[in-house]
Design goal:
Length: about 400
């Protein structure tokens, strides 16, 4: 490429409103930003003042339609980079890279970060711990799994995000009723052993296949429980130097390395089993974590994942991580009963961010003290349950 790195033309795919900090940082670095979103997101507060072009496709477009849209845009703009900001954009971005013959993750590798079955199969093959699982394809194989692994089980969509569409199954009869209800879609599910335990996530930056930054967090309430029972989602930095931090970061690096991930950001979820005290990988994502995880990481470290992802896309192998802090962060998010909940009473000096979304109450804490963050999370969680928390009917619940 004859142009300098700062002149890179970046095609950004975003089926949800997110990643403004990515686009702003890329623009500060001199890049062109061309955004493609969906019709239902077109009126969100996108940063139009920094966009070189903006296009809203039909909702849920087939891949061929997106290829046609992007190649039409490419008649005038010779894109250098394709970035998918959300889970649902990862495979589309990979397919576009292949079609345009651009560098970056291609479809076979992107599948590891979207398809739970592909991810588990590959990681099990290379020695990374995952819960026992089986494809929901062959009847005899499923029955053999049920003979070997006692209920309860988790029936999960292979390519949905977070806790969306997951069923906890308590008997073989219940399982087969669920499988039969899926019809021909059954093969798009995975069945796995239910592991009681605490859920963790690690949010990382990787350059040249090497993890250069990773932050470990523990979910106070498992995302599945929040998605299916309501309540407050809470997450906090794992105590620095602890055995849990060391173990989960080691497993995180092993997963990223063995999946061959090269450049960018990842959000990987784990569970610490109450049965054996070991960490097991639940799912991988090649994106910034949702529910204000980026603000949680920034509160503890000073590192903005969106901005640094943009820098990695521009600098490539020359990227250098800026100076960081080693504080602790905490995050609380809940659906609210009012459109604009008043959180002014939550005024501890450790509150560094308040969620701007309507019908939500949320905040991020930052402190050098792990104990102080834990104290505030406990206090604020109880108060927010009383002051704000709303619970949707089960059919409307969705975790992000």
């Amino acid at each position: 490429m004859s142009a300098t790195d700062s002149q890179k033309k970046i095609l950004v795919l975003a089926c949800y409103f997110k990643g403004v900090a990515f686009m702003e940082q890329a623009k500060r670095r001199g890049a062109q930003i061309h955004l493609v979103t969906h019709e239902w997101q077109k009126d969100k507060p996108w940063p139009h003042h920094i966009l070189d072009s903006f296009f809203a496709q039909m909702n849920d477009p087939p891949l061929r339609a997106t290829i046609n849209t992007v190649t039409y845009m490419a008649r005038q703009t010779n894109f250098d980079v394709v970035v998918g900001l959300d889970d649902f954009d990862v495979e589309t971005a990979a397919a576009l890279r292949e079609h345009l013959c651009l560098p970056g993750m291609k479809t076979s590798q992107a599948r590891f970060f979207r398809d739970k079955l592909s991810c588990r199969t590959e990681l099990k093959r290379v020695g990374v711990r995952v819960p026992d699982f089986v494809r929901v394809i062959n009847d005899a194989e499923i029955n053999a799994f049920c003979d070997h692994v006692p209920a309860p089980w988790m029936l999960k969509p292979r390519s949905e995000a977070s806790a969306t569409g997951i069923h906890k199954v308590h008997s073989r009869d219940e399982l087969w009723q669920l499988i039969q209800s899926k019809g021909d879609d059954r093969s798009f599910f995975i069945l796995e052993k239910y592991l009681p335990g605490d859920v963790y996530h690690v949010d990382s930056l990787t350059v040249g296949g090497k993890v250069i930054f990773a932050e470990a967090h523990r979910c106070v309430t498992p995302p599945f429980d929040v998605a299916h029972g309501g309540g407050i989602y809470a997450s906090a930095t794992v105590e620095r130097g602890s055995d849990d931090e060391k173990a989960i970061k080691e497993l995180n690096e092993m997963a990223i390395t063995r999946l061959g991930y090269q450049n960018g950001v990842t959000h990987i979820e784990f569970i610490k089993s109450r049965e054996d005290g070991k960490f097991y990988l639940l799912e991988t994502a090649a994106r910034v974590g949702g529910a204000h995880t980026a603000e949680l990481v920034e509160a503890a470290t000073g590192i903005n994942l969106w901005a640094e992802w943009a820098n990695i896309e521009i600098d490539g192998a020359n990227y250098r991580l800026p100076k960081r802090r080693y504080d602790h962060g905490g995050l609380l998010m809940t659906l609210a009963r009012t459109e604009h909940p008043d959180m002014s009473a939550y005024n501890a000096p450790e509150v560094v961010f308040r969620s701007p979304e309507t019908w939500h109450a949320g905040l991020v804490l930052g402190s050098p003290s792990h104990a102080r963050v834990a104290e505030l999370l406990t206090d604020y969680r109880e108060r927010m349950l009383r002051d704000f928390t709303a619970v949707l009917p089960a059919a409307q619940r969705c975790a992000h």
